[in-house]
Design brief:
This protein is an alpha/beta fold and 267 residues long. The strands form four sheets. A three-stranded parallel β-sheet has the order 5-4-6. A hairpin with a 2-residue loop joins strand 2 and strand 3. Helix 8 runs antiparallel to helix 9. The C terminus is likely disordered.
Length: 267
């Protein structure tokens, strides 16, 4: 019953929206990435200019908006403590990889943000393997901070995330069919874009996916780091990319030109 009650909180869209509204993404960028990053409100990094939906709203952080959403979902406050419609205090844990200092910092910032709404949040650092095991095998967790990564800017490698029967469809793992109408919409759109040839048409379909994801918040997106690279001034054709390998993808085109006078370099 205790687990089911906490699941009910996170199954409520307004509760997820309230958490998203309360999270200080700018603070995460500043404190976790030393300002070298970007806040996220959707599943595509702003650096992925070919596929990011530029029309997605970027609402500013608002604790007042978060409180309004919680009230409309039937939550209330006993003193400084947030309680659900059944009068139970809202208390849960965030698991994060202990070897990833950035994610544990994020968890601590979120813990502080949500305390301002009266939520009692605990940060639980675990070994990475334990986090993965809890998320994918035992389901013994309430909230986890993880990263969505891929080896391509194209949407197709993400099929396992967004399709309802995908292996990393984390909010409903192992379902035989879509659990909601909006998940069914994502299934249809992702499958359609996969067999559509024209980029413009694919982009339109994938924009719709991003809009559905942003509206329903199966994940609450936080921030993404910048990719920082460097090279000598006389390295020609140096064109960093957002995908690995960031600097050597065009290695056959890289060459050193003659060093500037006095630089002490070699041709």
């Amino acid at each position: 019953p205790t687990v089911a009650a906490k699941q009910a909180w996170f199954q409520d869209l307004k509760f997820r929206q309230a958490i998203s509204a309360a999270v200080d993404r700018d603070a995460i960028v500043k404190l976790v990435y030393a300002g070298r990053g970007a806040a996220l409100w959707g599943n595509v990094s702003p650096s992925n200019k070919f596929w990011v939906d530029q029309t997605l709203p970027h609402p500013p952080r608002s604790l007042d908006k978060a409180r309004e959403l919680l009230k409309s979902a039937g939550f209330s406050w006993h003193g400084d403590t947030l309680v659900d419609p059944k009068g139970q205090p809202v208390e849960f844990s965030i698991v994060a990889s202990s070897s990833n200092t950035q994610r544990t910092k994020m968890a601590t910032i979120i813990q502080d943000d949500l305390s301002k709404l009266g939520m009692n949040v605990h940060v639980v650092p675990l070994e990475f393997r334990d986090v993965v095991n809890r998320v994918f095998q035992t389901y013994d967790y309430e909230v986890a901070i993880m990263g969505l990564g891929g080896g391509d800017a194209d949407p197709n490698p993400e099929m396992n995330v967004w399709l309802s029967n995908g292996g990393t469809h984390l909010w409903h793992l192992g379902e035989a069919k879509p659990a909601s109408d909006w998940e069914a919409q994502i299934d249809q759109l992702m499958q359609k874009q996969m067999v559509t040839l024209k980029y413009k048409d694919r982009k339109h379909l994938y924009d719709q996916v991003q809009e559905i994801v942003a509206a329903n918040l199966p994940y609450i997106f936080l921030a993404t780091p910048n990719i920082v690279v460097g090279a000598k001034k006389n390295l020609s054709n140096f064109t960093p990319a957002i995908l690995d390998p960031n600097t050597l993808w065009n290695v056959e085109q890289l060459y050193y030109s003659k060093s500037p006078a006095g630089a002490g370099g070699k041709p």
